[in-house]
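debug: dumping io for the single-chain case to check the tokenizer round-trip. Nothing else runs in this session.
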Amino acid sequence: MEILLKGTTAYKILSGDRLTGRLSHAYMLDFPDVKNMRAALKLFALEFFGTDAGTALGARILNGSYPDFKIYPQEGAKIAADGVGEILEDSVMRPVEGDKKLYAICGFENASALLQNKLLKTLEEPCEGVHFLLGASSLAPVLDTVKSRVKILSVPPFTEEQIYAALERAGHAEINAAAAISSGGILGVAENMTGGGWFEEVLAAAEEICTTVRVGDIGAVAIKYGETKYKTELLCEMQRCYFSALNGEGKAAKVLSTAAIVYALEELNGAFADLKFNANFQGLLYDFLLKVVKENKKWQRLQQ
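debug: decoded output
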């Protein structure tokens, strides 16, 4: 994560502000990775104070013992009124050890409009030496009045190559490449995939579904995977499987005609839409496979 973030424009902007003595009184870290948001805020805090994890100061910032850096809420908790009240009360006091203090708020997208409004005046006119770093996985729930009072540091999704390299640095695994492709450029999503056996199960399920070519097998396959907890993930992996087949890769390429693969990808768009309306997933899989298998048989007959 550190290597990824230090290469971003957002990190370089904060670093430049510090080096030129132009630190903003408030920043908003726009970062879609919910799982790694807290770690990202701490990394940006290290840069804010001009230190790193290998120093005594850096270690104190990371372990929460440095009085001029506070991160809210506590890990695992949500932003609450009492936490915002504590920030407002504490922010009127001058820095304890240095010439500046930083308040980081994790998961700001979850803060209600009422809580965001309570922070407005302090964000606009904080006490001398007081700074804020707000972390949000999405800017959509953040009030425009808040966004107008902060300097936004946006971290867009990373590339598949970057995610794959980060996973490999953490430890080689056969599913790293697939996780990188399916992560949407978000490291936390990829880490969740590689951290549990569920993703390997989804990969195997997608391959079995995409290589089903007999009408008689459709019912059993639909029943087998119709109750999965990972419906969206399974459809995404099916999509990836079909795309690979278009390039002549994977088992599906050996049993499906090109026309049937293209047809399957088109039908998957409808499956994604149906899933949003809480369609019965077992029935959805059955109908989808029946159409694809029939399409495949039609083109096989034409080629004979």
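debug: round-trip ok. The chain has 16 helices and five strands.
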